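Posted in: Protein Modeling Q&A

I'm a second-year student putting together a small comparison for a lab meeting, and my supervisor asked me to include a predicted structure for Putative nickel-responsive regulator. I've never done this before, so apologies if this is the wrong subforum. The sequence is pasted below exactly as I got it from our records. If anyone can share the structure token output, I'd also love a short note on what stands out.
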Amino acid sequence: MVHESDLSRIGISLPKNLLDKFDEILNCRGYSSRSEGIRDAIRSYITYYQWMSDVQGERQGVITMVYDHEHRGLLQVLTDIQHDNLKIIQSSLHAHVSHEKCLEVILVRGDAGEIKKIAETLMAQKGVESVKLTTIPIEPHQH
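Accepted answer (user: helix_wrangler)
Welcome! Here is the predicted structure, written out as tokens:
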């Protein structure tokens, strides 16, 4: 049980459309408050970050990214990031989800640290809505 004295109060600013979507999900899932939902979301974010931090060695995987293709300069930045990582990025698939949104799936293979760095660089770009990294270890060849 969390005691009132253990809680820290924070203030955050969110775009209305993001807060509206969050509230809709909270309502559908039966949360009693935004605070409860935000705590859950932060726990999930921490778990995902820790999982990503544990990824080591040679990996094969995908980076799935959703972004606003109308965001000024973003397409060039995303292209440059991919071209700067030709040794890791094997292929990419681009789909137009709507007039504004694009989905990109990037096939990667190489050192986990380098793959994570690419995913985190993509995440940091303004106009990128979400980035998900999924990898598996590369098994050594059995002869």
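A couple of things worth pointing out for your meeting: The CA atoms of residues 60 and 136 lie 6 Å apart. The beta strands are 58-68, 89-96, 101-111, 128-137.
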